[in-house]
Amino acid sequence: MTEIDHYSILGVTQNSSNDEIKKAYRDMARKFHPDKNPSPDANAHFLNIKKAYDTLSSPSERRTYDAS
C-alpha cells in the first residue's frame, strides 16, 4: 500500500503555517465535498483531504507524522 503524503493532498509544504493548512483544507473541501461534487470519486478525495487536515492541524499528530 502506498502512503499518501498529507502535504501533497492539501497542496502545502512542510513549512506551511496552521493558517495556510486551514485555508488549503477549506478550499479543497469545498471542491471535493460529496454534497457539492457529483463525481463518484468525490467522497474518497474528501476523506483523504479530511484525514490530511486532521493530522496536520494537530501539533502532536503533525510532529509524529513529520518524524515518520
Automatic annotation (TrEMBL):
Matches recorded under SMART domains: DnaJ (SM00271)
Pfam name, any one: DnaJ
Gene Ontology cellular component annotations, sorted alphabetically: cytoplasm
PROSITE patterns hit by this protein: DNAJ_2
InterPro entries: DnaJ_domain, J_dom_sf
Signal sequence coordinates: none
Span of domain J: 5-68
Gene Ontology molecular functions: unfolded protein binding
Domain of life of the source: Eukaryota
BP GO annotations: protein refolding
PANTHER family: CHAPERONE PROTEIN DNAJ A6, CHLOROPLASTIC, DNAJ HOMOLOG 1, MITOCHONDRIAL-RELATED
Protein name: J domain-containing protein
Organism field: Oikopleura dioica
